[in-house]
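Weekly modeling sync, notes
Attendees: S.R. (lead), two postdocs, one rotation student

Agenda item 3: backlog of single-chain predictions. S.R. asked that every request posted to the team notebook include the full sequence so nobody has to chase files. The rotation student volunteered to paste the first one in as an example of the format we agreed on. Action items at the bottom.

Example entry:
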Amino acid sequence: MTSLHRLMALALTATALSLAAGCAAPSRSGSVYSDRDARQPMQIQTGTIQGVREVRIERAQPTGVGTAAGAVVGGVAGSTVGGGRGSIVGAVVGAVIGGVAGSHIEKNTSDRPGLEITVRTDDGRTLAIVQEADGQRLEPGQRVRLLTDPRGQVRVSAY
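Predicted structure, as returned to the notebook:
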């Protein structure tokens, strides 16, 4: 294996690891707590679900890791096409196609199914809370708790 092949293999491995790490997004589920949520007091309200609607939760800012990783992989793969100027053109075209594909892969792996839950609180307010769908069964008419953490983030959980 030549040093160029070793370098390309190392770059591909590092890119794949970066892509895997970059696509992981924190959960927005009502049933998942982060380590910084543990042992924090939460304000509790109770209410009744008025409606539940399926939504899609997108990452607000793509990391760009998918685009970069795809461009590297596509560029390396494209450079094997032809020889001389053909391999340069192949690398450029491969990098563009790989970047677009990597961007789509990152988006599809970071988007999550969610629920928009409309709740009428016992004190008469109507709130809509969006959280990641996690298999918890939430239906109109059901009594629920609204837990608000110190940062003001609210989650809905079954009573």
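Discussion: group reviewed the output briefly. Strands lie at 43-57, 112-121, 126-132, 143-148, 154-158.
Action items: rotation student to repeat for the remaining queue; S.R. to check formatting next week.
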